[in-house]
Design goal:
Oligomer: single chain
Helix content: 25-40%
CATH class: Alpha Beta
Distance between the termini: 40 Å
CATH superfamily: FAD/NAD(P)-binding domain
Order of helices and strands: EHEEHHEEHEEEEEEHHHEEEHHHH
Number of strands: 14
Strand content: 15-25%
Number of domains: 1
Shape: globular
Number of helices: 11
CATH architecture: 3-Layer(bba) Sandwich
Length: about 350
């Protein structure tokens, strides 16, 4: 009898998706999560790409819909003055809060016989243990280039003009989509220097009013923030070469690589990376290859499947966020319906 088992450090979307897939394959799996469920996280709460199909294969799609998840089919983009027409998404996306999604995924993992420990931090010296997968999310970056701060909060009573709204503000951008119970998730990225001193718990409406297109101001009047939903995270940077860096750890999700949220592909990439990792891991458990071979095989697969979208999305974000590109950005928003499918395909 094979006694090999897998220990996943981190119980976010990537870790839980991998744990669920490994249990489908009959692999003894343990997940250690430092936090608890349910809780809010900084996240666009928007799954666009192959991740939706993989949620079906993981038998998670229907439970997520039953809990209030919504399918998004249309999108609209706003600049300082420009507004795009309503655009049909090339593929429907799933919108659901992390508060609901992580709890549903963790419950299913446990129901499948997986072992889940919460409120438990794993010492970094254990990351190198054979059979250990790192799924702890984006690695905090304190280097000079880490200039972005991400934020998120939920509001009630905010009417959207499309299933997904993307707003390019003076220095940054934010997305809004409806999740369960009629709530709207507001999630964005801003330069860290602007985030200093900003309290979105009290100043959220003034912040939106001063940054959103004037057409949205009236809709803000009846909106109310959901207490406890505000989150922020700093030290964010994006690097298209992340996959090429030699690393002795088996990583999935944002710990593998973080794609700019402008693409709307972050949650899908986490799920896809988990599914991709399950093959080499299962071969290790079945003694078809050793752990080092699994690491090498997965690194090659990750480069093959994800390098193109990272190579496109990182410079795309730099161009769209550059202050001197303001005029070009306004021009692009007005004409986005002509080439949005091309951008979608390049970042999926």
């Amino acid at each position: 009898m094979n006694t090999r088992h897998i220990h996943i450090v981190g119980g976010g979307v990537g870790g839980l998706a991998l744990g669920t897939r490994l249990r489908q394959l009959g692999v003894k799996t343990r997940i250690s999560e430092s936090g608890t469920y349910p809780r809010h996280r900084v996240c666009g709460e928007f799954i666009s790409g192959r991740g939706v199909e993989l949620l079906r294969k993981l038998d998670l799609f229907e439970p997520l819909l039953r809990s209030g998840g919504r399918m998004a089919k249309t999108m609209k983009f706003f600049g300082a003055r420009a507004i795009s027409p309503e655009i049909q998404m090339p593929q429907p996306a799933l919108c659901i809060s992390r508060y609901a999604m992580d709890l549903i995924m963790s419950d299913q993992f446990k129901a499948m016989g997986g072992e889940l420990s919460t409120g438990q931090r794993v010492p970094p010296d254990k990351y190198l243990d054979e059979g250990t997968v790192l799924a702890t999310g984006r690695k905090p970056n304190t280097e000079k280039g880490a200039t972005w701060t991400g934020y998120k909060f939920h509001v009630q009573g905010l009417k959207l003009e499309a299933d997904l709204e993307m707003h390019f503000i003076e220095l940054g951008y934010l997305g809004m989509c409806q999740v369960e119970r009629g709530r709207v998730n507001v999630c964005g990225l801003m330069p860290s220097k602007l985030a200093a001193g900003l309290d979105l718990r009290s100043d959220w409406k003034d912040f939106l009013r001063s940054n959103l297109h004037p057409k949205k101001h009236e809709a803000l009047e009846s909106a109310e923030r959901i207490e406890g939903s505000t989150c922020c995270v700093s030290g964010i940077s994006y690097d298209a070469s992340q996959l090429n860096k030699t690393n002795p750890l088996l990583r999935v999700g944002d710990r593998m690589s973080t794609i700019p949220p402008l693409t709307g592909n972050g949650m899908s990439l986490a799920i896809e990376s988990a599914w991709l990792a399950s093959g080499p891991i299962a071969r290790y458990v079945d003694s078809q290859q050793n752990w080092s071979q699994s690491l090498e095989n997965l690194a090659a697969l990750q480069t093959r499947f994800f390098q193109k979208r990272l190579a496109v999305s990182v410079p795309l974000q730099h161009v769209m966020m550059a202050p001197f590109m303001h005029g070009v950005r306004e021009h692009v928003i007005k004409r986005l319906s002509f080439f949005h499918k091309t951008l979608f395909n390049l970042t999926r």
